[in-house]
Amino acid sequence: VKGNYLKHYAFYDETLRNEMLEEQNILNDMETALKNRQFEVYFQPVYSLSTGKIISAEALVRWVHPEKGMLSPSSFLPIFEHNGFITKLDTYVWETVCKRIQLWKSEGKEVYPISVNVSRVHLYDSNFCSELLSLVQKYDVEPCLLKLEITESAYTENEKQLLYIMSQLQCSGFKILMDDFGSGYSSLNMLKDVPVDVLKIDMRFINGFEESTRAGSILASVVQMARRLKLPVIAEGVETREQAEYLRLIGCESAQGYFFSRPIPLQDFELLLAENKTF
Ligand code: C2E
Ligand code: CA
Ligand code: CA
Ligand code: CA
After folding, report:
1. Residue 13 — pLDDT band, cuts 50, 70, 90?
2. Measured between alpha carbons, how far is 41 from 97 in angstroms, rounded to an integer?
3. Among 97, 112, 202, 259, which has the highest number of CB atoms less than 10 A from its own CB?
4. What is the DSSP letter of 99?
5. How far does residue 129's CA lie from ligand 2's centre (Å)?
6. Best CA proximity match to 206, nearest among 49, 14, 32, 75
7. What processes does the entry annotate via GO biological process terms (predicted)?
8. Using H for helix, E for strand and C for coil, what is the string for 140-187?
9. CB of 202 closer than 6 angstroms to any ligand 1 atom
10. pTM, full prediction
């Protein structure tokens, strides 16, 4: 028994060591990666369920690593949030989006609002709103074109500081999307007075409603409640036509998910926009 225990211990020790080495590797790589433009912004279109057309998109970051290939956010974001690098990376993503919107305008193309993810780390920075304002001003982008996705759990912390910054953002003209709505421990009651313009319903509500009538009813009630609160809704993680149809039926305005399109590189997104086909 003792021998086994030691073996296990050695095993865990080894994985822990590897994890730490891996984290150290990422730390060493990230500044170089930003300089060498290894971070790419992908776009996942958001569709109107009534017209069937693209109305906006969400910007999602990817790390195209020279040795490890394409890394998805879950493999590096937790580390970046931990060491603060996330604020630099997010700023890079927002700037990339603003530049693109500016380019669309100058080319006389139709301009779509793009939503970006905001790490909670940024919300503790009291200069955040003014920095964001100077960024959009630099590229002559109206604040309402850069929509800010803030995850539900940031609201549940319910700190005055956070709520203050969010209302400051709203007053400056930015639109705030509550991301992952319904995923955490938020109470519906909090929706009474938090600064938010759009609800993004978490994909957990979407997946599996076909198998259970309860899940379907819950989804319908959430959409109905949002409508009563005059909050537009985006459903996330829509993977089938049936899901899209049901969402339309219960009054959900818009949706994104693999059924419509995966997150795609900019060039592909612009092709989709040019076609502007209904789904
Ligand atoms: P999120 O903001 O909730 O983004 C939605 C995630 O669901 C994305 O994963 C997207 O690729 C995935 N997804 C979209 N449609 C479907 C679907 O139909 N089915 C399934 N199963 N998944 C779908 P991704 O790109 O891996 O991003 C994961 C998370 O990383 C994001 O979750 C967001 O919280 C964070 N993230 C991504 N990019 C950024 C960024 O630039 N800055 C910050 N701070 N966070 C980011
Ligand atoms: Ca998001
Ligand atoms: Ca989400
Ligand atoms: Ca999420």
Report:
1. confident
2. 8
3. 97
4. H
5. 19
6. 49
7. phosphorelay signal transduction system
8. CCCHHHEEEEEEHHHHHCCCHHHHHHHHHHHHCCCCEEEEEECCCCCC
9. no
10. 0.92
Beta strands in 34-154 (DSSP E): 39-48, 54-65, 69-71, 114-117, 146-151
Q: Which candidate, 89, 87, 30, places its Cα nearest to that of 60?
A: 89
Which atom number of ligand 1 is nearest to the Cα of residue 72? 26
Residue 44, token pair as written in the block: 């996942």
Give the residue, out of 56, 60, 176, 243, with the most ligand 1 atoms within 8 A of its beta carbon, to mutate for a pocket test: 60
How far, CA to CA in Å, does 270 sit from each of 51, 117, 145, 217? 19, 20, 17, 37
Find the helix or strand (DSSP H, E) in which 26 lies. helix 2-35
Percent of the chain having pLDDT more than 70?
A: 94
The residue to which tokens 């590096």 are assigned: 76
The average pLDDT across 151-179 equals 90
